[in-house]
């Protein structure tokens, strides 16, 4: 199961890489901050050259019945919106790995998913601030296979 999942993820990322254009679409190289929405966390976004970026998101949640930690990596293709300086849109694909601990049994589960993302990105022209509003749907592979469409989030980052 794990080998098959990694193979599908690898092939999907490679197909995405083959389809991208080469224009520079973002106005910053690195950004770090918070992601707020259905799952709060920390986000670090870095340029991979031209219009490609890598977004790493660490989410954590504590609920009455469980606690979890997840690390998401997203490969994103960024495109400028021509009429508004600093505004762009992006889409991408990636994956999540994490763990959950259930109360009161203290049992644990591995979490794996394939994630997509589509959103808007704005870099303030005269300030080192970046805002992103996106939707990050996921197909969970473990512990259960299911679609999760609740991944709406607002990221506020410091750029450098």
Question: How are the elements arranged and paired?
Answer:
Elements: H1 2-19, E1 30-37, E2 41-49, E3 52-62, E4 66-80, E5 87-102, E6 107-123, E7 129-135, E8 138-142, E9 146-148, E10 152-159
Antiparallel strand pairs: 1-2, 1-10, 2-3, 3-4, 4-5, 5-6, 6-7, 6-8, 7-10, 8-9
Brief summary:
Helices cover 11% and strands 62% of the residues.
The top level CATH class name:
Mainly Beta
Enumerate the strands of the largest sheet in spatial order, edge to edge or round the barrel.
Answer: 1-2-3-4-5-6-7-10
The profile of the biggest β sheet is:
8 strands, antiparallel, barrel
Structural class: mainly beta
Number of strands: 10
Please, how many domains? 1
User: How many helices in DSSP terms?
Assistant: 1
β-sheet strand percentage: over 45%
Low-pLDDT regions: 15-24
Q: Please tell me how large the radius of gyration is.
A: 16 Å
Overview of this protein structure:
This protein is mainly β. The protein has a single domain, classed as Porin. It is 11% helix and 62% strand. The protein has 1 helix and 10 strands, in the order αββββββββββ. The protein has an 8-stranded antiparallel β-barrel with strand order 1-2-3-4-5-6-7-10. The longest helix is centred in the N-terminal third of the chain and has 18 residues. About 6% of the residues have low confidence.
